[in-house]
Amino acid sequence: MFKALLLTQPQPRQTHAECVPLSAEQLPEVAEGAVRVAVSHSTLNYKDALAITGSSPVVRQFPMVPGIDLAGQVLASQDARFQPGDAVLLNGWGVGETHWGGLAQQARVRGDWLQRLPAGLTAHDAMAIGTAGYTAMLCVMALQERGVAPAAGPVLVTGANGGVGSIAVALLARLGFEVHASTGRPQEAEHLKRLGAAQIVERSELNAPGKPLQKERWAAAVDSVGSHTLANVCASIRYGGCVAACGLAQGLDLPASVAPFILRGVALLGIDSVYAPMARREQAWQRLAQELPRQLLQDNTQTVGLEEVIALAPRLLAGQVRGRVVVDTGR
Questions:
Q1: Helix axes 46-53, 306-317, angle to 10 degrees
Q2: How far is Cα of residue 143 from the mean position of the Cα atoms in its chain?
Q3: Domain region containing 91
Q4: How confident is the model at residue 294, as a pLDDT?
Q5: Which CATH number covers residue 86?
Q6: Could you tell me which of 7, 8, 155, 258 has the fewest CB atoms within 10 Å of its CB?
Q7: How many CB atoms neighbour CB 230 within 10 A?
Q8: Quick check: is 284 in a domain?
Q9: DSSP assignment, residue 34?
Q10: Domain assignment present for 320
Q11: Number of domains present in the structure of the chain
Q12: Cβ neighbourhood burial of 279 (10 Å; 0-12, 13-18, 19+)
């Protein structure tokens, strides 16, 4: 038997979350290449919090074990690429949404969804990075591939106190960029400056309806917020700049005009982390292992047990959680 956070739906549009004991036989089967993993660490991401609270229809079928991230060791494998004892991690691929995820002490997943833990990272380190940090690196890679360099000017990061934003700030600063961090929590300004932010931008400057074309402020941006914030960011990008968009904390809508794109040549780059090809994932994780200081991870992370996740989820959605949350499934 092992412990898992299980979501059920006792009534339509009502989600119940509870830590329960399960057996390996209860784990859902996979079509091919099944690998059973002893999960030592997982995370609490924004999407996980939506699933646990039932605030958004993230979960497509019930019952469901949430958790879009996991790290641990292989227990049993029908995939020749993995053997018992191998250290592995997983991000995305629909786990925690359509297939049981990582907020449990065991998981059965497809070998195609797993990758080996990069050298130099512990399972705790990998989950301190998690989907949020991996997404942040995908954003940084996209900006660099568009030719954005420190000499081009400052780069804005929205939602800077969140998981994606905080790691994006740290990665960009380490690469030599002048980073402007947008946040609605001015009390966290010193933390953002320790991560590498050179300037703090009040969230209120960006989150209300604005003009379709505004003063050119930033060479590029990483946005995890969407809606009016993303529209205002696009309207404020310098000629030929670009925005990597990866989130929807403010909303799914994009109340923007084509003006920045056809008058300033601004590019909007969509970043998907869930189904990114394995080669792209491995490139991002190798860079994270090499470029993200471990001390920074420690300062930007809190560790909780499975039992604490349910109460923490609504706080994360309310913007009351700083940085990353690692879930130690053994606590």
A1: 100
A2: 17
A3: 2-117+300-328
A4: 83
A5: 3.90.180.10
A6: 258
A7: 26
A8: no
A9: E
A10: yes
A11: 2
A12: exposed
